[in-house]
Design brief:
Layout (H helix, E strand, L loop, with lengths): L4 E4 L5 H12 L3 E6 L7 H6 L2 E4 L6 H15 L4 E4 L15 H29 L3 E5 L3 H4 L5 H21 L5 E7 L5 H4 L35 H11 L6 H13 L2 H6 L8 E4 L1 H20 L1 H5 L10
Helix pairs in contact: 1-9, 3-4, 4-6
Length: 310
């Protein structure tokens, strides 16, 4: 097959950078978004990637215009990977500002939706293309003190569900990727994160400044910005970003493990990434199923016509 054209957002570091590097290594073309040219990695420039300046905090028109520019680079795009995300809005719902909440939803939800719209039209009219939206296992677990982040990612999940159904008749594939813990900057770049020279024990856990004086229980998410990544590492739950990029390539090209498991042969929308995502989300879903089964008489009691069989 001829080389593919990928648009990957958020490529200055982390999973976006890993994916961009891998796709280039496979001979494909990559249009890599960054918020400024100063943030464009030299390794991508040397590999032949095209930089695209876009900031999801800008107006919808500016974000959409950037997407249209990406399509014009090579006259077509084959794969869109919405990878940009952030967790700037950390804190209890009562205490976090509405501005921080709106900013979180703009980065993780509204920006990606606006950016996707020209590609949706492009893929539909070509009757080909692939959209991969990167969400998070947190969209399913809803960690306390991360309500803005998990809420925005849950919104992206629902948006992706609907988009997949809309585009399926046009031959456009859509996947929702749910990464677990990978060693990106999403935690360490947050001002509440505290680094240590050695891996701390439970009593040595660094405490972030500015944490809530009211919501002080771990079950309420207190200091989760530090405990969550360290607990994942302690359990051996840390993803390999290069392996992540390989799996994404295999899904798009229907090769390797994706081919062996028949991922593209089934109507599967969600792609879990990382053992923590797989195990923790399964546990959460089992709990939800138990909830629905146990309350069946209750929810059936509200029907106009009782005792209907499904």
């Amino acid at each position: 097959m001829a080389e593919r054209v990928w648009v990957i957002t958020g490529t200055s570091s982390g999973l976006g950078l890993a994916m961009a590097k891998y796709m280039l290594s496979q001979g494909d073309k990559v249009i890599a978004t960054v918020r400024s040219l100063e943030k464009f990695p030299s390794v991508l420039e040397e590999g032949g990637a095209k930089p695209l300046i876009v900031d999801f905090n800008n107006s919808d028109d500016e974000v959409i215009c950037a997407a249209k520019t990406a399509i014009e680079f090579y006259g077509r795009v084959d794969v869109l990977v919405n990878n940009v995300g952030g967790n700037s809005g950390v804190g209890p719902v009562e205490e976090i500002s509405m501005d921080d909440i709106r900013s979180q939803f703009q980065t993780n939800l509204f920006g990606p939706i606006a950016f996707s719209k020209p590609f949706i039209t492009h893929f539909r009219t070509r009757r080909a293309g692939h959209v991969l939206n990167l969400s998070s296992l947190s969209s399913m677990l809803s960690h306390p003190s991360f309500a803005a982040y998990t809420g925005s990612k849950a919104g992206l999940d629902s948006f992706t569900d609907a988009l997949a159904a809309e585009l399926a008749p046009f031959g456009v594939r859509v996947h929702l990727v749910l990464p677990g813990y990978f060693p990106t900057n999403i935690f360490v770049s947050h001002p509440h994160f505290k680094t240590t020279d050695t891996t701390p024990g439970p009593t040595e856990m660094p405490v972030a400044e500015g944490l809530s004086q009211v919501y002080t229980e771990e079950s309420q998410g207190w200091n989760l910005i530090n405990t969550l990544p360290r607990n994942a590492q302690a359990r051996g739950w840390m993803g390999d970003m290069d392996k992540f990029a390989t799996r994404i390539y295999e899904i798009v090209t229907d090769t390797g493990m994706a081919k062996e498991l028949g991922i593209n042969d089934e109507p599967w929308l969600r792609v879990p990434m990382g053992s923590d995502c797989g195990f923790l989300v399964q546990s959460k879903l089992n709990g939800i199923l138990d909830n629905f089964k146990a309350t069946e008489p209750f929810w059936r009691s509200t029907d106009v016509y009782q005792n209907q069989k499904q």
